[in-house]
Design brief:
Length: about 110
């Protein structure tokens, strides 16, 4: 088990989210290209079309599943840290706004 900074975990989560989004829309049609397209070879054959696989659906599925799992793992760590960590803030940060509340001395940090 490795120890990393929260900022690193947040960056990794963003990288994994982008990869999962990149892999999600891949369809069978986008993984093939037309390799051969011939018209009227003989009187019996009108057209020959050959599809050549660029990558296998198994490869895409494995990559997607791996990245999605890594994303879930890093997100769980971030959420755990979120619930266990307290931060110090100005006393008024969590107050709701109401008209007339802002005074010049409260604007300074």
């Amino acid at each position: 088990m490795a120890t990393i900074r929260l900022a690193e975990a947040l960056l990794r989560r963003k990288e994994l989210q982008q990869k999962v989004e990149q892999l999600r829309p891949l369809s069978e049609e986008s993984m093939f290209k037309v390799g051969v397209n011939r018209k009227k070879v003989t009187d019996d054959i009108d057209e020959i079309v050959t599809k050549v696989p660029l990558v296998s659906i198994t490869e895409i599925t494995k990559a997607y599943d791996w990245h999605a799992r890594q994303l879930r793992l890093v997100d769980a760590v971030i959420q755990q840290t979120n619930w266990e960590t307290a931060v110090d803030v100005n006393d008024t940060v969590m107050d709701d706004y109401s008209a007339g509340d802002i005074e010049d001395d409260r604007l300074s940090l």
